[in-house]
Amino acid sequence: MSIPVIRTVLGDLAPAELGVCDAHDHLFMRSRALPGQELDDPLAAEAELRTFAALGGRAVVQWTPHGMGRRIADLAALSRATGVHLVAATGLHQAAHYLPELLERLHALDLAQLFVTELTELTELTELSEGAGGAGQAARAGLIKVAGGYHGLDEHARWTMAAAAEAHHATGAPIAVHHELGTGSLDVLDLLCGRLGVPPHRVILGHLNRFPDLRLQRQAAESGAYIALDGPSRINHATDHHLFDTLAALIEAGHAERLLLGGDTTTSAARGTPGMPYLLATLRPRLVREFGPEPAELVFRANPARALAFAPR
What we know:
Blueprint: E1 6-8, E2 11-13, E3 21-25, H1 42-54, E4 59-62, H2 72-82, E5 85-87, E6 89-91, H3 100-107, H4 111-120, E7 143-147, H5 155-171, E8 175-178, H6 185-195, E9 203-206, H7 214-222, E10 226-230, H8 238-252, E11 259-262, H9 275-291, H10 293-308
Parallel strand pairs: 3-4, 4-5, 6-7, 7-8, 8-9, 9-10, 10-11
Antiparallel strand pairs: 1-2
């Protein structure tokens, strides 16, 4: 059996080497749905990473999937320059984020095989729509990112999740899921884990604190999946109001080992928010004060190391 690794843009790590981790963020991203708000400035990304590193941060997971401006060459250069481990994503977001012609081209491909190739082969991870920042650095993705809809799953979500499950079964890679406004987590679990056979502990459910239904959040955690909660964002500012209520409910219910935290900066307009450094400068000390050092250690170090690790096949 292969030894579990975490796959970064500079190569594979033993999980114990990951360190303090922002488990859900974006250094680079562009979307048809967010015109003029692209995250595409390597200097701004470097400044964010250096501040994060100065506070003890050692890893960032970029959930930007295929076709949305991952800029793999820049990720590799930033990782070398700052010493921060960076994990890139394959997968697809909601259909609204892509030009119709790109989706048409993707539908003509074996989508699961595209994901497998990006997870397992040293390629340039060049997007079908990618221009600047997409070539010149051989690397592999370290997780599969897919997305649900608002309170349900549309045809696009079911297509991408079926491909993600097939790629998971071929590689062992974790699957990270965007939940629109925090909804639909039980539908996702029913499809991915119930019908498609992905073990729940290989699934990361994102944004659940955007829909502050504590009963639903506890039910999702009871499945064995990981729960990735958002830090502050100007776009998603309501998450600040609910974050510690959610953390308290899940920790008190015995689910501290299922929790992850990330900043989830998604647009250039949000770059002026506290961002990645806030996770360590403010949220981590609050976690320690309110729940003790052990939950903070789990959330920022031990849980990401387990959630992101997979055994290449």
